[in-house]
Each structure stands twice: as C-alpha cells, then as structure tokens.
Amino acid sequence: MGGHSKYGSTGLRMSITMGLVKTMGGDITFESEKDKGTTFVITIPFKIDMEKREAEKKAKKSVCSIAGLNILLVEDNELNMEIVEFITQNAGAVVTKAWNGREALEIFEKSAEGCFDAILMDVMMPEMDGYEATERIRRLNRKDARTIPIIAMTANAFTEDKIRSKAAGVNEHIAKPLNTELVLQAVAKLVQPPVVD
C-alpha cells in the first residue's frame, strides 16, 4: 500500500500548483460537494500574438491563392466536375469546362493566346484521354501551348502513371480522390497569380 492511500496527501501538490499558476498571473477556484467531489478551475491569461497570426494568414493565402486565374477544367465525370469547379470558383478562379480531351483541345485552340492560366486535366476520358489532349496542346503553334501549366487529375497514382504524365507534357500529377488544399496548392505553385485588391 502506497503512502498516499495509507496516510493521505501532504498537500504539497496543490501548493506547488498554486505557486506555478500565480507565477503565470493566473488563479485557481474550486467547487466542492459532499460525497461527490471537488472541481478545480485553473485560469491563466494568455496574449494572442495577432501580428504572427496575421502573418501566417497572409503566408497561407499567398501560397494557395488562385483568385483571378482563368482555368480550363477538363473532366468527363459530372460529380467530379462539380466538385473541382466548386473548389476553384470558391477560391476566386474563373472556370471554363470541357467534358473530354477533344473538347478541351478545341476550346484551347480557339482561345486567345494567354487566355488560360492553367489546365486541370482528367486523364481517363472518352473520345480523347488527358495524355493525348496534353500532347496535342503542347504541339500547337503558339507560345502559351508550351508554357501553360497542365495538372493531371487521376486515380492512377503509380510511379509509371506519373512518368507517363511527365512524358505527355504534364507539369503536376494529383491523385484522386482530390484534396481541396492539394488542388489549390498545385495551381498556385505553378502559376504566378495576379494581384487582387
């Protein structure tokens, strides 16, 4: 049998706790009820470093901001299209939708040079898959075709899939199911977003 259960507490723990709390400018209160026990409440004032918090917010915003960007979103699945459209539009981007690779190629070909800032490209699609669409966009005789960031979105996340994506001209490879932060980070990392007031 330990000393605590045999002889009772010496009271030092409460004294030490009280000393520490008082040193930090805090206070201890308690409520006691017979046959039920005692509840101790420790209150310690802390100052929030607002400058640091604002700096962190600004840093996060600058890393993931895609506000004002024009994105060509290529996706054949209606639900996936809706999800990615919501993610990007909610972050302030303007979205143009294409439902397969052939449609994406036609939209890009007909657009003015520099119209789009990035392409989010599904890989497995009917008519023309994302790899072929990317390759054909890269071969177009216009400067932005070679420089526009193209981000592949696919459930195929094996090393060979990433290698094939790179070979087709893809800049970044995002695995499905899509993570909101990863989508925003991938676009923001590859595109220098315009300054938005």
What Rg do the Cα atoms give? 28 Å
Question: How many helical stretches?
Answer: 9
Strand portion: 15-25%
> What is the first-to-last residue Cα distance?
70 Å
Topology as a string of helices (H) and strands (E): HHEEHEHEHEHHEHEH
Number of strands: 7
Which descriptor suits the 3D outline? elongated
Mean pLDDT: 84
Strand order of the largest sheet: 4-3-5-6-7
User: Main β-sheet, in a few words?
Assistant: 5 strands, parallel
- Report helical residue fraction: 40-55%
Oligomer: single chain
Low-confidence stretches: 193-197
Structural class: alpha/beta
Summed up:
The protein is built from 9 helices and 7 strands, in the order ααββαβαβαβααβαβα. It has 197 residues and is of the alpha/beta class.
Task: Describe the protein in words.
By secondary structure, this protein is of the alpha/beta class. It is 46% helix and 19% strand. It contains nine helices and seven strands. The strands form two sheets. It has a five-stranded parallel sheet with strand order 4-3-5-6-7, with helices on both faces. The longest helix has 15 residues, at 50-64. It is elongated. It starts with a helix and ends in a 7-residue tail after the last helix.
